[in-house]
Write a structure and sequence with these properties.
32% of the residues lie in helices and 29% in strands. By secondary structure, it is of the alpha+beta class. The strands form 3 sheets. Strands 7, 8, 9, 10, 11 and 12 form a 6-stranded antiparallel β-sheet that branches. The protein has a 4-stranded antiparallel β-sheet with strand order 1-6-2-3. The radius of gyration is 18 Å and the shape is globular. It starts with a helix and ends in a 7-residue tail after the last strand. Bound molecules: adenosine-5'-diphosphate (ADP) and magnesium ion. Magnesium ion binds next to loops.
Length: 224
Amino acid sequence: MKIHEYQAKELLKEFGVPVPAGKLAYTPEEVKYYTKQLGGKAVIKAQVHAGGRGKAGGVKIAKSPEEAYEIAKQMIGMKLVTHQTGPEGKIVRKVLVEEAMEIVQELYLGMVIDRSASRIVIMASEAGGMEIEEVAAKTPEKIHKVYVDPAVGFSPYMGRKLGYDMGLDKDQVKKFTSFVSGLYNLFVAKDASLAEINPLVITGDGRLLALDAKINFDDNGLFR
Ligand code: ADP
Ligand code: MG
């Protein structure tokens, strides 16, 4: 089962993983109102079950509530075609109105279950914001991995290793480790089969935030 970005971000918040402030909206009027609440500037993001929205016109920055209204008018109801939707596209029914962040660096953080090793693999990369498949094909040395033994669980040294492998400084590594720990707890508690934060950003004021979030669940665990 897949969930939307805004739902994934609500879960992240629950597990102490920092996300930008945001509100879900169904109409241009709501989008305008929330943009005003966020200080007059916002990023408007189509909520569809597909990535690649940025390049397809599904992520737009509004510099005023009026501009947010116009963007929403165009985006809500549109058929968004990204490289992940297939040619038929997906109709946008709702949008996330989100605080516009000042991005200094874009990182990647992912978790999947490696069935052959019966382990959770945590992957991190300094090449965030790009498709991870593309990074794997072109610059595999930029993808760092650790395997977690479920019997032992996550240890902070794993976060520190990934953080230093990406070239983060000491303070960032500390924040990154707590970020990974929160995501790992969510992953295990909610029976996730995949979690992907792309990008995980470092902001102008030195915070680490999940700017995008994709979480899929193991259907066998849904009853829980
Ligand atoms: P997708 O992966 O579907 O293209 P993302 O949520 O990753 O969608 O957004 C695409 C890009 O838009 C990000 O890499 C980032 O550069 C920018 N972006 C997204 N959300 C924000 C935000 N809240 N503030 C500033 N920039 C953003
Ligand atoms: Mg993304």
